[in-house]
């Protein structure tokens, strides 16, 4: 049975890794939150198609009487 002693360098590295994990998770949550807010702010869901700057037939208003 081997005796395993953890060096203090490993403890510091683990702390930095956990800090980086927290920063990355916070960034993902921020991007997700901003995406949800932007999508919810749209009045017409079809308007979301216009963000790629191409015209699609679904974006052209249809005349109901003609």
Helical percent range?
40-55%
Overall mean confidence score, pLDDT: 80
- Structural class estimated from helices and strands: mainly alpha
Q: Give the N-terminus to C-terminus distance in angstroms.
A: 87 Å
Poorly predicted runs are none
Helix count?
1
- What portion of the residues fall into strands of 2 or more residues? under 5%
Using the alpha-carbon principal axes, give the shape. Answer: rod-shaped
- Rg from Cα: 25 Å
Main beta sheet strand tally, sense and closure: none
- H-E order: H
Count of DSSP strands: 0
Explain this structure to me?
- By secondary structure, the chain is mainly alpha-helical.
- It has a domain at 10-44.
- Helices cover 50% and strands 0% of the residues.
- The protein contains 1 helix and no strands.
- It has one helix spanning 8-40.
- The N and C termini lie far apart (87 Å).
Brief characterization of the structure:
The chain is mostly helical. The protein contains one helix and no strands.
Write the layout of secondary structure elements.
Blueprint: H1 8-40
Task: Name a few traits of the molecule.
66 residues; mainly alpha; 1 helix
């Amino acid at each position: 049975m081997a005796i395993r002693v953890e060096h203090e360098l490993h403890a510091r590295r683990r702390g930095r890794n956990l800090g980086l994990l927290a920063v990355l998770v916070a960034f993902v949550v921020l991007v997700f939150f901003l995406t949800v807010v932007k999508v919810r702010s749209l009045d017409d869901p079809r308007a979301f198609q216009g963000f790629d700057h191409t015209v699609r037939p679904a974006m052209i208003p249809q005349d109901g009487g003609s």
